[in-house]
Design goal:
With 196 residues, the protein is an alpha+beta fold.
Length: 196
C-alpha cells in the first residue's frame, strides 16, 4: 500500500526515533508498504518518520545510481544490487574528508542542496529478520544511509546547510509545509489531519 509521505514542517520529522522490538506489529507489512511508497516516489531511501512513525527503521535501494555512466564500473555494480532494511541502526564511526553531494528528500520536494558528509561509515543494525550486522560502507551507499539515518535522529538535510542557504530556501520550505507544491506522489502536510 502506498502511504502518504510526511512533508517538511511536521513535528514527527524532528523527533529522535525509538528502537523497536522483534515483535513489532505487522513489521513485514510495514516494510513492504515503505518499499512501495519509496518506489512510487522514485526515492532511493525512506525512513519511518517520513510516513509518520517515530521508530528506528529505514530502507535504502541505490539501484537508480547504477545508471550513472560517469561512475566506475565496480561502484555501479555494487549500487545496482544494494538494497537493505535497517532496524535500530547506530552509526558507530564516520571517517574521511567530508565531500559535497547534491541531496534531495521526499519530505522536502523540489529542494536540492550540496551537503557535506564523511565518505565512510561503520554501522550496526538489524535486518528485516532481526539478525544483527556490523558493516562498513563508503561512497554513495554511505551517503544514502547517512541521509536516512539522520531521519531517525530527527535531523533533515536542510539542518546541515549554512544559515545563508537556509535563508535562501525559507520561502520554498514554508510553501512545502503549507502544501503549496505540485508533486506526483501522496504527501501529508502538517496542517492536514491524519486519516485513520
Amino acid at each position: 500500500m502506498i502511504l502518504p509521505i510526511v512533508a517538511y514542517g511536521d513535528p514527527v520529522l524532528k523527533v529522535k526515533a525509538k528502537d523497536i522490538a522483534k515483535d513489532y506489529p505487522k513489521l513485514d507489512e510495514l516494510i513492504a508498504n515503505m518499499n512501495e511508497t519509496m518506489y512510487n516516489a522514485y526515492g532511493v531511501g525512506l525512513a519511518a518518520p517520513q510516513i509518520g512513525l517515530p521508530i528506528r527503521l529505514f530502507i535504502v535501494d541505490t539501484s537508480p545510481f547504477a545508471e550513472d555512466e560517469g561512475m566506475p564500473e565496480e561502484a555501479r555494480e555494487f549500487l545496482k544490487d544494494f538494497k537493505r532494511v535497517f532496524i535500530n541502526a547506530k552509526i558507530v564511526k564516520e571517517e574521511g574528508d567530508e565531500w559535497a553531494f547534491n541531496e534531495g528528500c521526499l519530505s522536502i520536494p523540489d529542494v536540492r542542496e550540496d551537503v557535506f558528509r564523511q565518505p565512510k561509515i561503520t554501522i550496526e543494525y538489524y535486518d528485516e529478520n532481526f539478525e544483527k550486522h556490523t558493516e562498513v560502507f563508503d561512497g554513495l551507499a554511505a551517503r544514502v544511509i547517512q541521509h536516512e539515518y539522520d531521519h531517525i535522529e530527527g535531523v533533515l538535510f536542510t539542518d546541515k546547510l549554512s544559515s545563508l542557504k537556509k535563508r535562501l530556501i525559507k520561502g520554498k520550505l514554508n510553501n512545502i509545509s503549507k502544501g503549496k507544491i505540485n508533486i506526483d506522489y501522496r504527501m501529508r502536510f502538517p496542517n492536514q489531519k491524519k486519516k485513520r
